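Researcher: We are triaging several targets before committing to wet-lab work. For this one, the compound of interest is S-adenosylmethionine. I'm pasting the protein sequence and the ligand SMILES. What I need is the predicted three-dimensional arrangement of the protein with the ligand bound, expressed as structure tokens, so it can go straight into our comparison scripts without reformatting.
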Amino acid sequence: MFHPQGPTFAELAQQALSGTTQGYDLLANKFEYTPFRTPDALLEVVQDRIAAQGPVARGVDLCCGTGAGLAHLKQVCTEEVLGVDLSQGMLDVAQARLEQTPGQAKVSLMQSDALDLDLKERFDVLTCFGAFGHILEGEQEERFVQSVHRALRAGGRFVFITSGKPDPLSWRVWAAKAFNASIHARNAVMDPPFHMYYLTFRLPRATELLEAAGFEVHAERGLWQDKFRGAILVQATKR
Ligand SMILES: C[S@@+](CC[C@H](N)C(=O)[O-])C[C@H]1O[C@@H](n2cnc3c(N)ncnc32)[C@H](O)[C@@H]1O
């Protein structure tokens, strides 16, 4: 569908009919060949921006999937890198990737829910890519931000990519809203739920949540061109 080695339409439908975790377990071996994997063109810039602020001892990537972001984080951390994901299938693929990735940091992977972590303020940098659509607006967003806060030391940074407020008249926004409505309808009649929504954790909402939790938010635009030109790099520093 997206790539000869990627999932077929039927396999993607099977993923959406399963719960979020089971769906990713099913998709894991083909995930690299989907557009849902965060592209290296975005991650390389993030890696440079993290490194530009000096050495980082410990980093963690939440919802790490097959390790796209972790592979970059490993190259800027000197001591430890941790990847957290709900899906063991995705973590198994990440494990194989990280063995081949340059970098001196010790790598560990943990199967856990990013909403309820207590990483005891151990980390200097925390990243999360391509996964905000799995976090429901409202109470789950607040739990997620509290998890991030508990993981970082004072002065530590939550680094992620988002985009700005969507144009309410754009057809893309209406298509995204229609998709979200179909997922809500699916979850009203099927268990376990599959949570995947568009238009979430955009800059205005993310800033509001992070400032309320005690972060200072810095957003940078214009770091990418062409199809990524709307992407915004956010670095939120824990006070
Ligand atoms: C679209 S993939 C993105 C993977 C990777 N970060 C990337 O950018 O390529 C989303 C990942 O988030 C994970 N995930 C979803 N909800 C989660 C949660 N509550 N806690 C931990 N992982 C979660 C899924 O298992 C999946 O691996």
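Researcher: Any quick observations?
Model: The first strand starts at residue 56 and ends at 62.
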